[in-house]
Amino acid sequence: MKPHQIEWRDAILGRKSINLDISNLCTLECPRCDRQKKGRPVPGHNMTVEEFTKIADYFDKILFCGQISDPIFNPNLLDFIQIAKEKGKQLNIHTAASQRPTNWWSNAFDTIDKDKSKWIFALDGLPKDSHKYRINQDGEHVWEMMKLAVSKGVNVGWQYIVFKYNEDDIETCKQMAIDNGIQFNLMHSSRWRGRDDPYKPSKNYRIDR
Fold first, then answer.
1. pLDDT digits (tens, 9 = 90+) for 151-187
2. Which among 119, 155, 158, 160 counts the fewest CB atoms within 10 Å?
3. What is the pLDDT of residue 209?
């Protein structure tokens, strides 16, 4: 192996965290997602247990935050959660989709390492309204699963992107999060299609870190 190849390898393996798109599947049709670009193929595949195990050996913190997929659709996700727990890894799972039954969510919440890991749910607005951007999302089901996770001792985050249809509901949703022991994260998108974009809010909002 050449010296520059060794340096590159060591730099990659020396990282403490990694974000993975563990699938190429999603049931949502969010208008600004890359999946909706006409003619764009959706690359990738469902990551295997063997592939994930190799990755988990090298990184302390692992994020499943899909850019073209939702992690809940990888059929091996519950195995990944167990592997991360056994290896003592921090695991953050970001999801927006709702097409899993309550018993599946319950099993996932029971399995995850509650001291080291976190579930982050994308719910853009009041549960009854989030589907206006997260097309095909059952926001009310997502909200119930967020509360179920909290009841099982899971660390839960609420990711809230500001759109025109939900900008007047921010304070209400913040209070809902406080009342249920959920961390509220306000996000501001830059994926607007000009000034007349119907999703664009009337002003900019601070991004919570």
1. 999 999 999 999 999 999 999 999 999 999 999 999 9
2. 155
3. 42
CB 125 within 8 A of CB 166: yes
What amino acid is encoded at 116 in this protein? K
Q: Quick one: tokens of 145?
A: 């699963």
The tokens describing 181, both together, are 């022991």
**Which residues make beta-bridge pairs with 155?**
118
48-67: average pLDDT: 96
Joined tokens for residue 200: 């664009």
Domains in the chain (CATH in brackets) are 3-187 (3.20.20.70)
Tally of helices (H runs) and strands (E runs) in the chain: 6, 6
- pLDDT tens figures, 106-124: 999 999 999 999 999 999 9
The half-sphere exposure of 185 on its side-chain side, counting CA atoms within 13 A, is 14
Give the separation between CA 90 and CA 84, rounded to whole angstroms: 7
Exposure b/e, 73-85, CB count within 10 A at least 16 = b: bbebbbebbebbb
- The answer to whether residue 29 scores a pLDDT higher than 80 is yes
Closest CA to 51 of 24, 14, 8, 22: 22
With CA atoms as reference, report the closest residue to 93 among 119, 69, 54. Answer: 119
Q: Tell which residue, 185, 192, 190, has the closest CA to residue 207.
A: 185
